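ARCHIVE CARD
Drawer: 12
Card no.: 0347
Subject: one protein chain, sequence and derived structure
Cross-reference: see card 0346
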Amino acid sequence: MSRRRLSCCLMAALMSLSLGVAVSDAWAQAAAKTTPGVKQSTAPQPFMPGEDGDVIGDIRVEGTQRLEPETVTSYLTMAKGDRATPDKIDASLKALYATGLFADINIAMDSATLVVKVEENPIINRITFEGNDAVSKDDLTKEVQLKPRQVYTLPKVQRDVQRILDLYRRSGRFGAVVEPKLVKLEQNRVDLVFEITEGKRTGIRNIEFVGNQHYDEDELRQAINTRESAWWRIFSSTDYYDPDRLNYDKELLRKFYLNEGYVDVRVMSAVAELTPDRGDFFITFTVEEGPRYKFGKINLHGEIKGLNVEDLRQYLTIHEGEWYSADRVEKTIAKLTTVLGDMQYAFVNITPNLDKHKENLTVDLTLDIKQGERVYVGRVNIAGNSRTVDKVIRRQVQLAEGDPFSATKVHKSEQNLKDLGYFEEAKITPTDSTQPDRADLKVDVKEKSTGQVSVGAGFSSTDGPLGDFSISEHNFMGQGQDARFGGTISGRTKQVDTSFTEPYFLDRDLSAGADVFLTQTDNQDLSSYTSTTEGFALRLGYPLSEELRQRLNYTFHDDTISNVPSDASLFILDQVGTSTTSSVGQELDYDTRDSKLEPTIGFITHLNTDIAGAGGSRKWFRAKIGGTQYYPLAEKWILSGTAEVGQIWGIGSPTKINERFFLGGDTLRGFQYAGIGPRDLTDANQDALGGDRFARGTAELTMPTPFPPELGLKSHFFVDGGILDKSDETAIPGDTFAKDGQLRLSTGVGVTWASPFGPVRLDFAEPIIYQTYDKLEHIHFSFGAKF
């Protein structure tokens, strides 16, 4: 190698070494600058200890504002006289960061002094939310865990951001964005502001099913709770995505198939995919239906002393050869449990055992009846009632502490709570008790508004528009009391009335109430007179059995017949003036309906008797008896029939027109109030005279509509009939039509809507049997508004 070439190689090596040192220094400086949580110290440069560490002569804490230096040193794993080894410095850093009090920490040796530099995390002064409209501030405050006067840390804020996002996603807003911001204040304090962009609710654009062969998608969509988004679901929450609801839908879908006989059904998956615009979800259910099974042999097996299980076969609601249904099996078990309870077998367990036969697609069912452990009711715990007092709920629960547990009474108690009309939801769940032979009852309710403004409207060919108005509160002061103030205004009636009812008078099952009323009715077009009634009534009701209840009443009122023209009916002219009525009466009700609000099966009958003459100037006796039967033809197809008859007898004198019966309007659709019955044909007005006796009946079929069920629409087809007659004893000389007694018949259709503002009903009726002098009314409309 030449000398010149050797010289060049040496120079290159020296340049490479110099460049490597420079790069190494640059990387070291860059690494020091980017090390998280470590700040560079100012001069003098700290002396970094060796592996054995230097002896600590003193400890100096820098950067504290709120904390005392002694607080910082208390977390160190070193003290004066110890050696500052790298392991001890690392342990001290971890201990200080673990407190959550510091945003940055630096520990180093400066000669013989251990210098601890800290930057404290700020203190939260207050927490505010901006941009939240769909979720209240109270709900957000409950969700976040950071509170004022706590130390601010970034990880805690990030966790709270996620909690807020989860809250919005549970309400269907998957496009929500939450950005935390700090407003710095003096003394190292901050205001924490969560800026929220809520976005719109993430709806359901489409629901599809894969693997369904026997049922189309429309049928399966009705079986689940989630619905596709549509404009008419503005008051519903089922048309936005909810992961929990999706899991519930999988179970509903499985139950649907089980109830149709598909015992091997499997819901493989329920997948929700967000659309590219992040505005909606596509939901896909994948199912394996399997074959359809029928019931095979149905066996009863029991080991209860004194019980012949074959005697229970008459109560079975399932039979061999029918399509298998898990729901019908459950109903059969509930029926047998009730029957055995009535036979004093209070603690019975009935277990269904299935034996599938794939070769002939049948399921043998064995109901294993065993004497269960004796279980009594422990505590009855009530939750969810912020307004209704506990005793109002507790008195509807048919089980008390120490009673034998009864699933039937639990179900009946739930229905009692629902029938009150105070709650959107009412659920009673047995839970474990602290005692082995006890089961606590958890009563969960969700209250709803019980105040109501009701408005009724109608139209008749002779009276034109009419309406009624009332304000009522069915859970007054949360005590279960009923208060009402109402009025009616039409072309002929002005009425004001108020009432108050205490359903549990003296904390007993006694309903006591009072009514005050003032009514002025212009009957010039119907009967050529004006009547004014003012008075009061007292009521007291009590049970005679679980289904039978009696009510007693006393009524006192003054009645004035006035403004009778000279050409009116002689019967009405004879009654001008004021009379006083003091009457006592009773009403017996026998009720076996499954629900008082929306009955589907059972019947209710009533017997009313009243007698006037205990004071006052009027004397008469009146009786009415009637009832309604409900019968389910199919799911949501309910046939009901109503029948009622009544008569009034004058004592010592004929009955007056204001004491008589009138049919029409609500009692006989297709005819206006007082539109049928005895009528005086001699005067120009053809005055309606009312009747001493009547009979009426209604047959109505309630059906679902082709519209989505969540709209709350039901359709009705009805036939109404009635007879109103006047007895010979009350005929007035001069009446050219003293009696009527002719059948009237009408038929029609109607629709009801369970609106968010209250029930709405529209009926159209067409009379098919009527007299030429009858007053007709084809359309009847009513609605209510809740607040």
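Annotation on reverse: Confidence is low (pLDDT under 50) at residues 1-50, 458-464. The first helix runs from residue 3 to 34.
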